[in-house]
Amino acid sequence: MTAALRFDPIRLPPECEKLRKEVRAFLADEIATGTFDPHKPNREDADAPEFSRRVGERGWLGMTWPKKYGGHERSFLERYVVTEEMRVANAPTRRFFVADRQSGPVLLKYAPENIKMDILPRICRGEVCFAIGMSEPNSGSDLFAAKTKATKTEGGWLINGTKIWTSSAHIADYMIAIFRTSPPTRENRRHGLTQFLVDMKTPGIKVNPIGQITGQFEFNEVVFTDAFMPDDHVLGEIDGAWKQATSELAYERSGPERFLETYYVLTELVRAVGSKPDTRSAEGIGRLVAQLHTMRRMSVSVAGMLQAGKEPVVEASIVKDIGTVWEQQLPHRVRELAAFVDADASNHETLENQLSFAIKTAPKLTIQGGTTEVLRGIIARGLGLR
Amino acid sequence: MAESDNIVAETAEKIFADLADAQTINSDKEGKWKAPLWQALSDAGLPLSWVAEEYGGSGASMAEGFSVLSAAGRFGIAAPLAETMLAGWLLAQARIASPEGAMTVAPASPRDRIALNPDGTLSGRARGVPFAKSAKHLAVLTQGPAGSSIALVDAAACRIEAGVNLAGDSSDIVTLNNVQPLASQPAPKGFDQARLMLMGGVMRSLQIAGSLESMLDISVRYSNERVAFEKKISKFQAVQHNLARLAGESAAALAAATSAADAIANGKSFNDELFLEAASAKIRCSEAAEKGAAIAHQVHGAIGFTIEHILHRYTLRALAWRDDFGSESYWAVELGKLVAARGADELWPLVASR
Q: Which of A118, A151, B126, B209 is deepest in the core (most CB within 10 A)?
């Protein structure tokens, strides 16, 4: 008998619906005042510091964290609602998204008190941007092959080496990175890596932007040359990052951002076909909506289980596997259906532009944050195959 | 397999485990398992789960009845259990008491119509009616000038042409030619054929999701036993990734079906949100049946293609259940029309409604 998969039919509690209305009203205001255009995912205004601060002012960053660090002690399901509304509206979340989802929770768990008191409230106010330093030129999915070295010195560590594909490093205030503090042991090849908080203003750090096939410059090469990290910037156990790296993955992998990245093309297709679609368009849209609905039910279910203190690691990996494959295929399915849409439809150009961008974005969706291959390995382990 | 969360489902699982073991049924060429299984299910009151005690049933909750169907799917049960449950539920909508014995429902396809004639008799044809041949009675949804009515009909009064579905289970053509019903009452306000089809579709979705759980279960077990190229095939990455995909399809079916069942069990009115839940379940579970069955067979190789192996009891049934109460393509068209009629900016509010 295999491990049973659970996807309980979780419903969002009533407080979420009130919150959803607030978020929608806030976003409508931001759109009206020209902060961003919801129809243009390929905009240049993705980094919006003022917007980030206003989101912080509304209390929508660090929502689940303790109040003493500037958090709001609300539920994961409430955070879920904010995340999905922002994503569907194509809001410019780049500046705060990583800090809020990932970096803050790591600091909460592993940073010394002085660092927590310093940085977490600033994340909650939307003032700081985080990057994640995992991949290196010769280690991507194989995290534990990382070579960038941290050498002990008086009062801290000296970092030498290169991180790569680091999203937002060019605008980030901080990075949470793993560096090699010891060689791996014969018994445990995962041994010897340590998690650090990196202040990006540290001398000896150089950020080189890398162009992407979408035409954007989101990710970077980050070169460290004798960059000094004080001792209190070590996060958790020295040489023991491998014990820390996996526990937060369920949060990172099962959120609405794992299937809504290209959602805008579906909305625009529905607009283009009008109120009386032909059979082909109706069937195509119906299938896509059924798949989307199912993805969301799975994702909300995992959020509900996380809120209840469970650790649905396999379920979360399934959500990311199915969700990212779906959002990757979505622009291609929409393209097929759009071929029959009236070229004089008022939004035809918008749809064409969106499709062009979404199709170019699609390849990265099953690579970033854990490739499909890695996820299927995790699922296989959960099934008892490895 | 998931643990049952209620006594009704536990009862069902115990009966299935005792009297409907897949290997035993698969070897039983004469169908000797059928009568004892049906007797035990009837004794436990399961076929009339959704009928109140005053109308001859056992008065279980909607949620309890749905969990019986999940269990029936996991065991690949081929008996008119879901059909009798649905018929009892349909009759109860019009406060018609359920008789004893197996029942089924007509129509079983959204394209068929049964007419209520001015003289009170019923006429029409229903295709793909599951287990009509073994049913004593039919619960029939009829259409007349005043709207929908619900009728109880003696199966002997109908012409029934026997047929089988992909899995070899009874799937018949029922013709009513001025048949006098045993009872007939107007359906509740707003109760139409789409409502009946979606209820049947959600029941089939739960059965499909259950059968996918079993496909995953036995495929994982087989891959951990079968040796090729000097190692268990579960150690090959290509096989692992196929099984991970099967787990994904099984998970998607489970999530879609249980969410729709929960929405019906707790729903106060039949609105667009409930339509989305029910139609999506049938669409997504049917898609999962196709992908999942293909992987389960691929993992098993030739042995899974034999009639002696139990795999087909789950794969063919899941594939067959796609056709009942409206296929995935039918519901996709209906859902697409609904979404288009609501308009682009109302799509997300619909999806995010709960």
A: B209
